[in-house]
């Protein structure tokens, strides 16, 4: 995947360089009424691409930040239920271990296995 990303970025940068070499004539940008910027077309293109890249990065960071704070309530409920069930299982395991010596036939089975081993 990294190789594909590298190739895509390389091709885009190469296209921009070739476009910049071919378009060195001056162009005017009308920012707001009364404010005009005149610069070579390749410089204007690089500036606009840089601004676009920064905006894309900011949007990406913003989406990730929203993801950290927007935890699905259903997921939270399921996690709480799982935790409760794990606690119940542990409690039942302890109760079963406490009750196991009292079960009928448990002492006989242990004695029989000891004799077979000896």
Protein topology:
Blueprint: H1 2-22, E1 26-32, E2 35-40, H2 41-69, H3 73-99, H4 106-117
Antiparallel strand pairs: 1-2
Describe this structure in words.
There is one protein chain. The chain has two domains: 1-69, no CATH class; 72-100. Strand 1 and strand 2 form a beta hairpin. It is mainly alpha-helical and 118 residues long. The protein has helices at 2-22, 41-69, 73-99, 106-117, and strands spanning 26-32, 35-40. The protein has four helices and two strands, in the order H-E-E-H-H-H. It is elongated, with a radius of gyration of 35 Å. The mean pLDDT is 83. Helix 1 runs antiparallel to helix 2 (41-69). The longest helix has 29 residues, at 41-69.
Compact summary:
This protein has helices at residues 2-22, 41-69, 73-99, 106-117; strands spanning 26-32, 35-40. By secondary structure, it is mainly alpha-helical. The chain is elongated, with a radius of gyration of 35 Å.
């Amino acid at each position: 995947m990294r190789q594909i990303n590298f190739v895509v970025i390389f091709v885009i940068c190469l296209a921009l360089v070739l476009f910049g070499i071919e378009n060195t004539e001056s162009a005017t940008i009308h920012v707001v009424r009364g404010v005009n910027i005149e610069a070579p077309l390749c410089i204007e293109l690089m500036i606009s691409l840089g601004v676009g890249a920064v905006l894309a990065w900011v949007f990406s960071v913003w989406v990730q930040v929203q993801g950290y704070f927007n935890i699905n309530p259903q997921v939270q409920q399921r996690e709480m239920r799982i935790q409760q069930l794990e606690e119940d299982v542990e409690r039942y395991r302890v109760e079963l271990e406490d009750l196991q010596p009292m079960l009928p036939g448990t002492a006989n089975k242990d004695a029989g296995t000891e004799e077979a081993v000896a």
